[in-house]
Specification:
Blueprint: E1 4-5, H1 6-9, H2 13-16, E2 26-29, E3 34-43, E4 49-56, E5 64-68, E6 72-75, E7 80-83, H3 88-93, H4 105-119, H5 141-144, H6 148-151, H7 153-165
Parallel strand pairs: 2-7
Antiparallel strand pairs: 1-3, 2-3, 3-4, 4-5, 6-7
């Protein structure tokens, strides 16, 4: 399950977004506390959005964390992305994403376990029963699938991106 930076996967992605750019959005907790800003978007080999890379801290002094797309709620009108069930303190405890690192399936599984614990809805996805050969993002739609209700235009942009790429 290789992941790609959106701009590497499709350099003209802004055309599918009608000039909008998700990287301009700030990330807030459900309580309204700013955590950081969207720095990048990671997509799978089909072009489906899987993670937002969030730059935390002030003026780049902080770290980058991964947020599974399904846990976000995007409001383009407000220029914000909201994440439910995660506080600023919890975000600071998440592992740091390194730009040059290649995300392995095992690392992704650890990220899923952390978020499932934070949200209080742990499933059978734990380190001992993870099977990298059979795992797919569709097994956890609450973490990796977008809905029109929670993601609005962003889910439409994903479909345009996939169609444009093909």
């Amino acid at each position: 399950m290789p992941l790609y930076k959106l701009q590497d996967f499709y350099p003209n992605y802004k055309e599918a977004f009608h000039g909008d750019d998700v990287k301009a959005l700030d990330l807030y907790t459900e309580g309204g506390e700013k955590i950081g800003s969207v720095d990048r978007v990671l997509v799978d080999e089909e072009g489906r959005f899987r993670y937002l890379v969030v730059s935390t801290g002030f003026l780049g002094f902080g770290k980058k964390i991964l947020l599974p797309i399904g846990l976000s709620r995007i409001d383009y009108n407000a220029g914000r992305v909201f994440v439910d069930g995660l506080s600023k303190e919890q975000a600071e405890q998440l592992p740091e994403y390194q730009e040059k690192m290649s995300l392995t399936p095992e690392q992704e599984n650890k990220i899923r376990i952390i978020y499932q614990g934070k949200a209080g809805n742990a499933t059978s996805t734990n380190e001992s029963d993870f099977n990298r050969q059979s795992y797919s993002y569709q097994q956890e739609p609450s973490m990796y699938e977008m809905t029109q209700q929670r993601h609005g235009d962003f889910s439409i942009y994903e479909e345009r991106l996939i169609a444009s790429r093909r």
